[in-house]
Specification:
The chain has 224 residues and is an alpha/beta fold. It contains 10 helices and 6 strands; from the N terminus they run βαβαβαβαααββαααα. Helix 3 links the parallel strand 3 and strand 4.
């Protein structure tokens, strides 16, 4: 399974999460972890499982991630399963009444990952898991304790949601399922052909070995 992890990072925290995702899936998938500067819409479209992540800054992803996703044509990710992630702070620990107000106002849209997921969906991607956020301590981090382990579990859960592809050789050997209506029409046609082959009248009597009406001698003229 071709798996691509695309990320942008300011202080290394989102890069660390992206690396944990890649490490979690190596050995069971063909994995590439690339910074956004090395990604293009064409590269994203080749992935069967696509992860995209960014820090949350001003309630949105970083500009380079926004620009990359804006270049995705509609339908370009139709064959891909997708998962979005971000890094974020705990609002209660920010001690900012203004920040808390906007987070309550915007709800999930106050973070980068849900915005990333919506854009991936518009390009045809199918999300395997809800968008996820990983916690950093303070503006510059580091990641909170246990977040890299959580990223590992999340990545494996996402990969487990991707349906296994049936090899083309196996698909060719599987007979196509005949619709019930077609089966009924075929059965009716067969029954009609069988009836058409049954002899009728005297021929039928001869074929079944039965005597029809008893044989009679020559007809005598009636006495005058």
């Amino acid at each position: 399974m071709k798996t691509l992890v695309v990320y942008d990072s300011m202080y290394g925290n989102t890069a660390a999460v992206a690396g944990a995702i890649g490490d979690a899936l190596r050995g069971q998938a063909d994995v590439r972890v690339v910074p956004v500067a090395e990604a293009t819409p064409d590269v994203l479209a080749e992935a069967e499982l696509l992860f995209v992540g960014s820090p949350t800054q001003r309630f949105r992803p970083l500009p380079a991630i926004i620009a990359l996703l804006a270049g995705l044509p509609r339908g370009s990710l139709a064959d891909a399963r997708v998962a979005a992630f971000d890094t974020r702070i705990v609002i209660a620990e920010a001690h900012s009444a203004v920040l808390s107000f906007f987070v309550r106002l915007l709800g999930p849209s106050a973070y980068a990952a849900p915005r990333i997921e919506r854009t991936l969906r518009r390009a045809g991607g199918r999300a395997v898991l809800p968008a996820e956020g990983f916690i950093v301590v303070g503006t510059e981090g580091p990641l909170a304790e246990g977040e890299l382990e959580r990223a590992t579990r999340w990545a494996r859960d996402a990969a487990a949601k991707v349906p296994a592809k049936v090899p083309a050789q196996v698909q060719a050997k599987v007979p196509a399922k005949v619709p019930a209506q077609a089966q009924a029409r075929t059965a009716a046609a067969g029954a009609g052909a069988a009836r058409a082959e049954q002899p009728v009248g005297p021929h039928r009597d001869a074929a079944e070995g039965t005597a029809g009406a008893p044989k009679r001698g020559p007809r005598r003229p009636a006495p005058s």
